[in-house]
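User: I'm preparing a small set of examples for a lab meeting where we compare how different chains pack in three dimensions. I only have the primary sequence for this one, and I'd like the structure in token form so I can line it up with the others. Please keep the answer compact; I'll paste it straight into my notes.
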Amino acid sequence: MNIQDTVKEKYGQAALRVVQGQGNACCGATASASSCCDSTDPITANLYDALQKSELPETAVLASLGCGNPTALADLKAGETVLDLGSGGGIDVLLSARRVGPTGKAYGLDMTDEMLALARDNQRKAGVENVEFLKGEIEHIPLPDNSVDVIISNCVINLSADKDRVLAEAFRVLKPGGRFAVSDVVVRGEMPAELRRSVELWVGCIAGALEENDYKAKLVKAGFTQIELEATRVYRTADARDFLLAKGIDVDAIAPLVDEKFISAFIRAVKG
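Assistant: Understood. Below is the structure token output for the 272-residue chain.
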């Protein structure tokens, strides 16, 4: 099974779990495989404030598997068109739709049928009309060139096996002057490959996080300018102690090599 099929299966299971009332979406059938499936996980916990949560159906909040809150950091304006790459249960799409108002529009793009069904049900419950959920892959965005003002995403681009294609597609669909404003997991500096693989399993469930300078270089290659990368959360080995110990890893020995290397970051760029 390739990474795309694995991601699709995992998030399909997560959506079904929410629909069936079994709690936090990340605690699916693969819960034993990753401590990211702990409802108190420091990556997914406390990303949205009480006011934001109160505006949305509970199932939209439970289905959130992100590492940040791009809607709180992106400067969305009334009348703009927003696209969320990997929209999941729709939490960021619905929040964006309220920010851009009735004259704006928010698209959500997801490849998982179960998540799309959940997102559309959450849209119905929220009573938000200026939203459209699309089925597709973030490597092949089903929208025309120069059609979107802002692209957001919440810890999804790191899961793609072809990040260059994702960024090229994002550039294509953005209008001139359009903004790329995403949350993602990023690696700071180098670390031993075998340690990176073990820690990535915890950080993103199925992670392929880029080193921060590599991320910036790929944005430049795609044509973006005004690139900024701001750390929003820094992860320490202690946060993953139980998970790493279960994998037979000497946490105390590796701590100096991996502490504060994985971060959640808010990444901004502009289509010139």
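A couple of notes for your slides: The first strand starts at residue 81 and ends at 85. Strands lie at 81-85, 105-110, 131-135, 148-153, 174-187, 210-211, 224-234, 262-271.

User: Perfect, thanks.
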